[in-house]
C-alpha cells in the first residue's frame, strides 16, 4: 500500500491503549545444515520465504536465552497447564463441598477423603452443572492438546534457530546469555553479506526490527493517535479505559492478523475498503467471547487461586503492591522498541513511581489503618500470651474456631492494615517525584506539566500504576465486558481504524508495508517542535513527539544503524547547541520547587548566570539538578542495571530533556542558561563519579559519527526561539 495523508477525524480521538499477545511462530524454514561464516567473497542464496516469522523466532530465542531454556520452560508450562486442568476437574466434580462441615469430620471420627471425595461424580445422571463442568474440561483439554502439538513445533523451530545462531552468527548458548540484542541484530546484518536472507536488498537493523514488530507498530500507532475506544458503553457513566489480555487477543485476531497478507507482507486492499466487514468481525467475536466467558472466568479464578493463595496468606500486603498496567505498558512503549526494552524501562521506574504515589497519602485512611492494626495487634498479643501459658490452648475452640485459626486471621488483618500506614517524615515533592518517573518513561502529557501536585494528575497516574489486586479484578471483569466492547464500542471506530491503516502505511522494498510512523518518515509526520526538519499537519503527526523520541531511542540503541538524510538532519540539529533546529528544554516547575532544594538534589550543580547576567530561574535549576542526579545514578549502573537504551548518563539527560521540551520556554536567554546548567552539572557529576570509583573502571567512549550518532547529552539542548522554526505561534499545541 502506498502512503497517504490522514484527515484526523476528531470524533474518534479516543485515548485507549490495548495490548497484544505474543505472536505465534510459524513452521521453520531453516532445516538444512549451513556452513560456518567465513571471510570468503562468495555469497550463498538462502532466501527465507517468511522473514517476519524467522526474525521473530530469532528474537524469542535470544529473549529466552537458548534452546535448553526453551525446552525446560515449554515442558514445565505444559505440565502446569495440564495440572491446572486436572486440578479443576477435582475441584468441580470430585469434591463434595457441602460435606466439609459434616459431623464426622468435626468430631474427628472419619477420614476427610472418605467424606469429601466423590469417586463417581457422573453417577445419578447428567445435570446442568455436570454438563457445564464437562464442557469446561473439554475446552481446556483441547487447548492442552493444542499446546502439546505446538510444543513439538516450537522445539523443531528452536533447533533450527540454534543452528543458525551457531553457524551463521557465531553465537553459542553460553554467549547468548550475555550478548546484547543490538549485537545480535548487527550480526544478522553482517550475515546478509554472505548469506542472502533477503534477495531484494541488503538488510539493516531497522529492517530486522520492523519485521519483528510489523503488527505491534501499527497497534502502537493506533493507540498513540487515539483511534480505539476501549470503554464499556454505559450511558451516564465516566468512560474508563479497559485494556486486558482478552481485548489484546481480540484486537490481534480482528485487525492485525486480518489486515496483512502473510505472503506479500502488504496491507490487503479488501480489508481497508470493507468497513462493514470489520464491523461484522468485531460483532462475531463478541458472540464467541460471550459464549466462552463462563468457562474462561472459571479457569482464571482457579488459576489465580492456585498461583497466589499461598502468597497472599503469608504476605497479605502483596495485595497492596502496585505495578504498571498493560494499558501503561502500551502507552509508554515507543515505535520499534522491543518488549524487553520496554519492560526494563518500566522496571527501572517502579521505585520512582511508588515515591510519586507516596506523595499523596490519605490521612483518614492512615489513621483508620493504625487503629485497625492496634486492635488486631492487641488480640494477637493476647493469643500469643495464651499460647505461651499452655500450648494446648491453641487447639481449643473460641466462637466455633480454633485459636490457631483466629491467630491466622489476625495476622492477615495486621499485614493488610500495616500496608496502608504511611510513616511520617516524607518530603512533599510531587513535581520532582514525577520528574524522576519521566526520566525512565519518557512520557509527560501536556496537561501534567507543572500540575503534578493536583488530584487530577494523581488520579490519571494511578490508573496507569495500579494495585495488582485491582488489575486482576479488571481482568476478570473484562471477560464479561469484552463482548460489549466488541459489539458496541469498537464497531464505531472502524472507519477511523481503516483510515489510519490506509494513511499511515509506507511500502519499503524488501520489507513490505509498515507503519510510516515506525519508519521514522519525518517528511510526512515530522514535528518541528521536537527537532524534525519538517512541520507536518497536526493530523499527520504523532502525539507528544513519540516518533521523534522513538527515532532518538533507536539511534541510541543501534549504534551501527545508518539513518536516512532527514533523520541525520534531526540528530545533527539536536546535537548542535545554538542552532536553529529545534526548541530547547523548558522546565515547567515554578513555586513548587524552591531554590534551596537544588543544593540538596545536586551538590555539584553549577548555578551560573545567563548571558544577560540574571541568575537562572530556581525551577530550572532544581529540574536540572534532579535530571543530573538521575543521569549519574543511571550512568553508574549502565545497561546491565537498567537494560534501557537510556541507561547511560548522557542518554538519560537527552531523553528526559527532550520530553520536557514540550512547552515553549520563557525566553531564549533562559534556554541558554538552562542548557549550560544541565551540561555543566552532568560533567561535574561524571568527574565526581570518576574520582570516587577510579578512572580505570570507566571505559573510554567509542568515537562516533556526529551526524549518525551525536552525543546524546546535547541532544535536547538546542537554543532558539520557537517562532524561528517556521511557525510563529509560541503557544502551539505540543501534543
Automatic annotation (TrEMBL):
- Report any Pfam family annotated for this entry: ATG9
Does the keyword section mention Transmembrane helix?
A: yes
What residue ranges are annotated as transmembrane? 75-97, 128-146, 286-306, 371-390, 402-421
User: What membrane topology term does the record carry?
Assistant: Multi-pass membrane protein
Known InterPro entries for this protein? Autophagy-rel_prot_9
GO terms for CC?
autophagosome; phagophore assembly site membrane
Q: NAD as a keyword?
A: no
Which keywords appear in this protein's UniProt record, sorted alphabetically?
A: Autophagy, Lipid transport, Membrane, Transmembrane, Transmembrane helix, Transport
GO biological process: what's one of them? Answer: reticulophagy
Q: Where in the cell is it found?
A: Preautophagosomal structure membrane
Instruction: Using the UniProt annotation, give all residue ranges assigned to the region (Disordered).
Output: 19-40
Predominant location? membrane
Q: Which family, according to UniProt?
A: Belongs to the ATG9 family.
Q: What does this protein do?
A: Phospholipid scramblase involved in autophagy. Cycles between the preautophagosomal structure/phagophore assembly site (PAS) and the cytoplasmic vesicle pool and supplies membrane for the growing autophagosome. Lipid scramblase activity plays a key role in preautophagosomal structure/phagophore assembly by distributing the phospholipids that arrive through ATG2 from the cytoplasmic to the luminal leaflet of the bilayer, thereby driving autophagosomal membrane expansion.
What is the protein's given name?
Answer: Autophagy-related protein 9
Source species: Elliptochloris bilobata
Amino acid at each position: 500500500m502506498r502512503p497517504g495523508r490522514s484527515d484526523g477525524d476528531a470524533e474518534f480521538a479516543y485515548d485507549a491503549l490495548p495490548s497484544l499477545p505474543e505472536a505465534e511462530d510459524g513452521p521453520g524454514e531453516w532445516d538444512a545444515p549451513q556452513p560456518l561464516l567465513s571471510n570468503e567473497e562468495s555469497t550463498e542464496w538462502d532466501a527465507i520465504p517468511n522473514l517476519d516469522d524467522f526474525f521473530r523466532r530469532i528474537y524469542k530465542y535470544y529473549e529466552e536465552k537458548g534452546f535448553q531454556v526453551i525446552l525446560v520452560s515449554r515442558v514445565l508450562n505444559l505440565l502446569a497447564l495440564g495440572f491446572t486442568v486436572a486440578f479443576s476437574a477435582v475441584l468441580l466434580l470430585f469434591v463434595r463441598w457441602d460435606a466439609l462441615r459434616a459431623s464426622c469430620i468435626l468430631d474427628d471420627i472419619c477420614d476427610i477423603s472418605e467424606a469429601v471425595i466423590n469417586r463417581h461424580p457422573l453417577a445419578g445422571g447428567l445435570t446442568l452443572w455436570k454438563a457445564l463442568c464437562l464442557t469446561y474440561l473439554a475446552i481446556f483439554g483441547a487447548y492442552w492438546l493444542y499446546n502439546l502439538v505446538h510444543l513439538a513445533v516450537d522445539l523443531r523451530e528452536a533447533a533450527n534457530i540454534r543452528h543458525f545462531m551457531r553457524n551463521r552468527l557465531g553465537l553459542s548458548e553460553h554467549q547468548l546469555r550475555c550478548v546484547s540484542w543490538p549485537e545480535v541484530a548487527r550480526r544478522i546484518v553482517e550475515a546478509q553479506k554472505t548469506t542472502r536472507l533477503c534477495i531484494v536488498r541488503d538488510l539493516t537493523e531497522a529492517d530486522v526490527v520492523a519485521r519483528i514488530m510489523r503488527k505491534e507498530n501499527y497497534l502502537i500507532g493506533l493507540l498513540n493517535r487515539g483511534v480505539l475506544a476501549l470503554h464499556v458503553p454505559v450511558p451516564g457513566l465516566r468512560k474508563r479505559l479497559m485494556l486486558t489480555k482478552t481485548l489484546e487477543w481480540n484486537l490481534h485476531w480482528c485487525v492485525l492478523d486480518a489486515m496483512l497478507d502473510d505472503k506479500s507482507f502488504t496491507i490487503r486492499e479488501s480489508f481497508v475498503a470493507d468497513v462493514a466487514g470489520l464491523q461484522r468481525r468485531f460483532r462475531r467475536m463478541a458472540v464467541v467471547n460471550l459464549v466462552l466467558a463462563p468457562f474462561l472466568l472459571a479457569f482464571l479464578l482457579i488459576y489465580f487461586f492456585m498461583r497466589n493463595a499461598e502468597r497472599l496468606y503469608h504476605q497479605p500486603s502483596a495485595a497492596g503492591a502496585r505495578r504498571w498496567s498493560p494499558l501503561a505498558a502500551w502507552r509508554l512503549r515507543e515505535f520499534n522498541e522491543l518488549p524487553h526494552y520496554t519492560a526494563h524501562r518500566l522496571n527501572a521506574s517502579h521505585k520512582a513511581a511508588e515515591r510519586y504515589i507516596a506523595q499523596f497519602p490519605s490521612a483518614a485512611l492512615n489513621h483508620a489503618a493504625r487503629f485497625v492494626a492496634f486492635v488486631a495487634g492487641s488480640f494477637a498479643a493476647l493469643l500469643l500470651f495464651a499460647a505461651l501459658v499452655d500450648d494446648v490452648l491453641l487447639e481449643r475452640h473460641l466462637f466455633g474456631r480454633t485459636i490457631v485459626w483466629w491467630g491466622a486471621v489476625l495476622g492477615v488483618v495486621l499485614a493488610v492494615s500495616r500496608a496502608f500506614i504511611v510513616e511520617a517524615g516524607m518530603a512533599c515533592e510531587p513535581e520532582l517525584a514525577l520528574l524522576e518517573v519521566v526520566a525512565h518513561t519518557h512520557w509527560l502529557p501536556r496537561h501534567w506539566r507543572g500540575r503534578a501536585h493536583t488530584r487530577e494528575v494523581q488520579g490519571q497516574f494511578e490508573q496507569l500504576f495500579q494495585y495488582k489486586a485491582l488489575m486482576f479484578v479488571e481482568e476478570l471483569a473484562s471477560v464479561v465486558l469484552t463482548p460489549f466492547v466488541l459489539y458496541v464500542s469498537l464497531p464505531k471506530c472502524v472507519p477511523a481504524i481503516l483510515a489510519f491503516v490506509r494513511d499511515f502505511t509506507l511500502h519499503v522494498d524488501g520489507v513490505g508495508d509498515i507503519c510510516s510512523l515506525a519508519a521514522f518518515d519525518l517528511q510526512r509526520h515530522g514535528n518541528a517542535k521536537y527537532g524534525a526538519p519538517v512541520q507536518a499537519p497536526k493530523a499527520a503527526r504523532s502525539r507528544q513527539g513519540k516518533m521523534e523520541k522513538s527515532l532518538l531511542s533507536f539511534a541510541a540503541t543501534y549504534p551501527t544503524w545508518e539513518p536516512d538524510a532527514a533523520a541525520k538532519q534531526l540528530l545533527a540539529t539536536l546535537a548542535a547547541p545554538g542552532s536553529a533546529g529545534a526548541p530547547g528544554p523548558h522546565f515547567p516547575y515554578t513555586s513548587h520547587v524552591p531554590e534551596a532544594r537544588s543544593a540538596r538534589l545536586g551538590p555539584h550543580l553549577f548555578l551560573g548566570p545567563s548571558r544577560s547576567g540574571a541568575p537562572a530561574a530556581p525551577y530550572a535549576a532544581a529540574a536540572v539538578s534532579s535530571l543530573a542526579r538521575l543521569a549519574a545514578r543511571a550512568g553508574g549502573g549502565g545497561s546491565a542495571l537498567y537494560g534501557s537504551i537510556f541507561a547511560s548518563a548522557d542518554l538519560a539527560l537527552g531523553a528526559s530533556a527532550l520530553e520536557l521540551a514540550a512547552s515553549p520556554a520563557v525566553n531564549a536567554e533562559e534556554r541558554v542558561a538552562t542548557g549550560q546548567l544541565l551540561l555543566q552539572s552532568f560533567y561535574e557529576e561524571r568527574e565526581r563519579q570518576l574520582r570516587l570509583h577510579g578512572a580505570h573502571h570507566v571505559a573510554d567512549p567509542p568515537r562516533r559519527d556526529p551526524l549518525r550518532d551525536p552525543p546524546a547529552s546535547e541532544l535536547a539542548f538546542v537554543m532558539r526561539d520557537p517562532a524561528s522554526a517556521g511557525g510563529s505561534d509560541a503557544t502551539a499545541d505540543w501534543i
